[in-house]
């Protein structure tokens, strides 16, 4: 006798099943909902380029939206600083030479001889 859990689509372990799967709305909750139009509007925070925030109702479930900065409105120094931040930083390699003056013969007297 098979004990089935219809909401989860599972069969009790240890019993061979025929491979039936019960699809329900619970299985879609694991992955992204594939919709182009959502039924309601969701509270979302919009971050403006100057750092100010606005709370709006957005048609997609998003937590935060950050608007891009217009580089043409910045001064030359600010534009150069922003573009430098985008470039990957180069790793600085520091090579220290360690002077090795270890002499193993100096410690032979502490080794017990049989």
What does it look like?
The chain is mainly β and 114 residues long. The chain is built from one helix and five strands, in the order βββββα. The protein has one helix at residues 76-86; strands at residues 4-5, 10-11, 42-47, 53-58, 64-66. The protein has a three-stranded mixed β-sheet with strand order 4-3-5, with no helix packed on it. Strands 1-2 form a two-stranded antiparallel sheet. The longest helix is centred in the C-terminal third of the chain and has 11 residues, at 76-86. The radius of gyration is 33 Å and the shape is flat. The N and C termini lie far apart (74 Å).
Q: What would the average pLDDT be, to the nearest integer? A: 78
* Assembly of the depicted chains: single chain
Q: What letter string, H or E per element, gives the SSE order?
A: EEEEEH
Instruction: Tell me the fraction of residues in β-strands, as a range.
Output: 15-25%
Provide a short characterization of the protein structure.
The chain is mostly beta strands and 114 residues long.
Descriptive terms for the model:
114 residues, mainly beta, three-stranded mixed β-sheet, two-stranded antiparallel sheet, 1 helix, 5 strands, flat
């Amino acid at each position: 006798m098979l004990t089935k859990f219809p909401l989860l689509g599972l069969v009790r372990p240890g019993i061979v099943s025929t491979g039936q799967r019960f699809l329900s709305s619970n299985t879609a909750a694991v992955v992204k909902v594939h919709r182009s139009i959502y039924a309601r509007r969701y509270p979302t925070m919009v971050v403006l380029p100057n750092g100010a925030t606005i709370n709006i109702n957005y048609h997609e479930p998003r937590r935060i939206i950050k608007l891009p900065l217009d580089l043409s409105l910045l001064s030359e120094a600010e534009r150069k600083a922003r573009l430098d931040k985008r470039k990957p930083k180069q790793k600085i390699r520091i090579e220290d030479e360690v002077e090795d003056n270890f002499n193993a013969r100096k410690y032979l007297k502490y080794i017990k001889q049989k």
